[in-house]
């Protein structure tokens, strides 16, 4: 499985529509998707799946105009496919490099253990492949539940994940940790597993996806969510996670370089529920990092931290406060397709 920082061909988005949980705030959330899409097109190609046929045509025209007006060398494909929701990170295809070239794996998706409807989302990859969205890349259906947000790869055989997610009985109840490792070794080429047993975010529906907590930034570097406030409900779990990270070693035995991410001010919805705002949910693309920001005091520090982690890439902040109203953020709504 390639690392996210390797050269990419495109980024995939699944567009929100009135039949999703976004229905009441479509006017707020669609501009966020537009900002992400336009940012991607500055650096690489874009693939969009959309349920509404009229919206397919409107988005195609909008993005083609944007490409022409900005004289961009990239392309966009907007294709019709029914969708239950918009979390492309988790229902999108996971890429692997094989001796014969790049291949796409279509893992089973069951909405984080059957929490929500998922039948349409589980068929999106097949629909897009039939429509030629991924060119000539072969795609294989895999009878294993796995979400892209639950795993991080360094592109060299190391996989970073959480036991809370991968070992929950609502995903693959017949498989224990040893069996999960065997399956991911065979399917993703993983040889070195880093399991986090601590760490969570209030308001998270994913059972502690790794992409909300800790991210590989290079083969020897991990950034992670850190909570300095001892009165915060997250403090002890994230402190325990930090200690686990300090005890991790690279395959050669060296410890990882660790960088804590800023802890954003608490954000709550209208019912007083805390929302899972996290700066770990960034997307690495060709020449840039798209960073979710939330209109809080720590946004500037987060931009500076990411700039220090990715000095050769442009940091593009995108206001993602509307996204966390449905308990996800920027990385959650995107899936990269590596270059062949």
Automatic annotation (TrEMBL):
SUPFAM superfamilies in the record, alphabetically? Pentein (SSF55909)
Among the record's GO biological process terms, what is one? putrescine biosynthetic process
- The entry's protein name is Agmatine deiminase
Keyword list (alphabetical) reads:
Hydrolase
Q: Which GO terms describe its molecular function?
A: agmatine deiminase activity; protein-arginine deiminase activity
Which domain of life, per UniProt? Bacteria
Q: Which residues form a coiled coil?
A: none
Q: Which Pfam families match?
A: PAD_porph (PF04371)
Record InterPro entries: Peptidyl-Arg-deiminase_porph
Q: Which residues cross the membrane?
A: none
């Amino acid at each position: 499985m390639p690392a996210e920082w390797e050269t990419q061909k495109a980024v995939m988005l699944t567009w929100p529509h009135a039949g999703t949980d976004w229905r009441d705030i479509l006017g707020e959330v669609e501009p966020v998707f537009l900002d992400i899409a336009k940012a991607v097109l500055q650096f690489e190609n874009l693939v969009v799946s959309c349920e509404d046929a009229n919206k397919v045509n409107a988005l195609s025209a909008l993005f083609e105009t944007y490409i022409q007006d900005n004289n961009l060398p990239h392309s966009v494909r907007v294709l019709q496919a029914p969708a239950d929701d918009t979390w492309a990170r988790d229902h999108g295809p996971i890429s692997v490099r094989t001796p014969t070239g790049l291949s796409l794996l279509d893992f089973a998706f069951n909405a984080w253990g059957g929490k929500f409807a998922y039948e349409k989302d589980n068929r999106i990859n097949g629909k897009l492949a039939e429509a030629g969205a991924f060119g000539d890349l072969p795609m294989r259906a895999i009878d294993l539940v796995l979400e892209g947000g639950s795993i991080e790869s360094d592109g060299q055989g190391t996989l970073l994940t959480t036991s809370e997610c991968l070992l929950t009985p609502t995903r693959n109840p017949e498989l224990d940790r040893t069996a999960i490792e065997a399956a991911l070794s065979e399917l993703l080429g993983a040889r070195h597993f880093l399991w986090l047993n601590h760490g969570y975010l209030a308001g998270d529906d994913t059972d502690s996806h790794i992409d909300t907590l800790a991210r590989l930034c290079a083969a020897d570097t991990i950034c992670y969510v850190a909570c300095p406030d001892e009165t915060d409900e997250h403090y002890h779990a994230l402190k325990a996670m930090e200690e686990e990270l300090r005890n991790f070693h690279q395959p050669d035995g060296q410890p990882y370089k660790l960088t804590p991410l800023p802890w954003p001010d608490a954000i709550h919805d209208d019912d007083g529920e805390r929302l899972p705002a996290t700066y770990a949910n960034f997307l690495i693309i060709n020449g840039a990092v798209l960073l979710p920001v939330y209109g809080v005091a720590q946004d500037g520090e987060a931009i500076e931290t990411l700039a220090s982690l990715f000095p050769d890439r442009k940091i593009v902040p995108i206001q993602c406060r509307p996204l966390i109203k449905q308990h996800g953020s920027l990385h959650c709504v995107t899936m990269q397709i590596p270059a062949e």
